[in-house]
Amino acid sequence: MRIIAEQGDITRAGTDAIVNAANSLLLGGGGVDGAIHHAAGPKLLEACRRLRNTTHRDGLEVGDAVATPGFDLPARWVIHTVGPNRNRGQTDPTLLASCFTRSLDVAAELGARSIAFPAVSAGAFGWPADDVSRIAVDAVTGWHGPPIEETRFVLFDQRVLTAFEAALAR
Questions:
Q1: Where are the domains of the chain?
Q2: Residue 123 has what pLDDT?
Q3: Cross-referenced Pfam families, in alphabetical order (predicted)?
Q4: Which of 68, 103, 158, 162 has the highest Cβ tally under 10 A?
Q5: pTM
């Protein structure tokens, strides 16, 4: 698997799937979640509401992942994952690692050959970029599922990109 870290807008990633740093309600929010919902158009919210009315009545658990179509995005699929919120005392790194491995599992089930991740739980959820990058890179490099050719970490700012580049270099 080829792994890349780049600065950019995940809604424009040229991958089969992009990962949404969602909230447990799956109904949109701020940051990456809001940007993905905006770029995908209103059908994404409808699809998320269907999930809430059927398979995820109580929302999505922290560390889990589920997919919807990408609708107006270049990506065919959006894989929604809920990262742990450090500001609420969710400090278990295995929950954060699970966001990445479960997203890869879902991507593989869909037949995706490429996937783009944001820095799940960095930013508003309070995890330091150095921790997120280390945990994310370890989770992706340690994942042993069906072949996914390319994983990209598409990061919004230079500080987070620098953390991911350092994690990939070690």
A1: 2-169
A2: 86
A3: Macro (PF01661)
A4: 103
A5: 0.97
